[in-house]
Design a protein that fits this description.
Blueprint lengths: L1 H5 L3 E7 L2 E8 L6 E2 L8 E9 L2 E5 L4 E4 L3 E5 L5 E6 L3 E9 L4 H10 L7 H9 L4 E4 L3 H12 L2 H20 L7 H5 L2 H16 L7 H7 L4 H12 L3 H19 L4 H7 L5 H12 L3 H7 L1
Antiparallel strand pairs: 1-2, 2-9, 3-8, 4-7, 4-9, 5-6, 5-8, 7-10
Helix pairs in contact: 7-9, 8-9, 10-13
């Protein structure tokens, strides 16, 4: 589907047997631009969307949209009535021909200590979602795009292939019993910490300190910090810095705000401090990032 649409529009690479990638930027309209509703049997597509969005409309009238810094997964187009791009779209597309890629998957599994991918479980997971799904936003997808942005363009395709294989592994692995973390923690503490995480998302432009956040959660600072790390696998300050930089990157890509205005929008009163934090996450200054985009 996307592969057919992008056949003459991007930079294609045969990464390994049965696996191709396309680095692309569809900038010329007119928009909306319709996609062909064709996907060969036993073919899989993963779109790592760096700009723009794709909307899929199913025959039952429901719609699914994959936007910036999300991953669109496709294994079957038969349930779709329409697919279109509404604005300039850029990213990396990974296409897999399962019949030709079996040896490639075995090679990747060997790197994981001779583990195997339960392709039947993956197929059932995708079928339960009508052959299309969106991954993100979440901690896993944020980490994927944060590292993708830091890589030179020549390495981005390989990175996305590796992350696609990681997704297949995650989907094929047996599910852990639900509430494993919650059961180990007080349920009320889990609810409070989740609420503070949402509060932080909505107030990235404000000063956010451990003492103030823990008071809002009605927890001690120690309980708040340890609980947050257990739930989200990152210290509070690390998570907050990453989210602020992700928001800053979105503003640099999609707005005309100055670097100082972007810094203030994500809680920094100094352009120099913001620049240092941004360089730490993306490897370039905010001005260079905007110019490259």
């Amino acid at each position: 589907m996307l592969a057919e649409f992008l056949e003459d529009r991007g930079d294609w690479t045969q990464v390994m047997p049965g696996v191709r990638t396309c680095l692309f930027a569809v900038e010329e309209g007119p928009f909306p631009c319709h996609l062909p509703l064709r996907l060969e049997p036993l073919h899989f597509e993963a779109l790592f969307c760096q700009a723009g969005s794709v909307t899929l409309t199913r025959r039952d009238g429901s719609a699914l949209t994959a936007g910036t810094r999300q991953i669109l997964l496709l294994s079957d187009s038969s349930s779709l009535a329409d697919a279109r791009i509404h604005a300039p779209l850029a990213g990396v597309l990974v296409t897999v021909d399962a019949r030709k890629a079996s040896d490639s998957l075995k090679t990747l599994c060997a790197l994981l200590g001779k583990r195997s991918l339960n392709t039947g479980r993956v197929r059932n997971w995708m079928t339960s979602r009508g052959g299309c799904a969106v991954e993100g936003p979440g901690d896993w997808s944020r980490a994927v795009f944060a590292n993708l942005d830091r890589l030179p363009q020549s390495e981005q395709a390989r990175w996305c292939v590796w992350k696609s294989a990681e997704l297949l592994y995650l989907f094929s692995a047996p599910e852990e019993p639900a509430e494993d973390v919650s059961l180990a923690m007080d349920r009320e503490a889990v609810r409070r910490i989740a609420g503070i995480r949402q509060y932080m998302e909505e107030h990235l432009d404000e000063p956010l300190t451990i003492s103030a956040l823990s008071r809002r959660a009605c927890l001690s600072a120690t309980a708040f910090k340890s609980g947050f790390r257990r739930l989200y696998s990152l210290p509070v300050h690390t998570w907050l810095r990453q989210r602020r930089m992700e928001k800053a990157a979105e503003l640099l890509r999609g707005s005309s705000l100055s670097v100082l205005e972007v810094a203030m929008a994500v809680g920094y009163g100094s352009a120099s401090q913001f620049t240092a934090a941004f360089r730490l996450q993306y490897g370039v200054t905010p001005a260079a990032y905007r110019k490259n985009v």
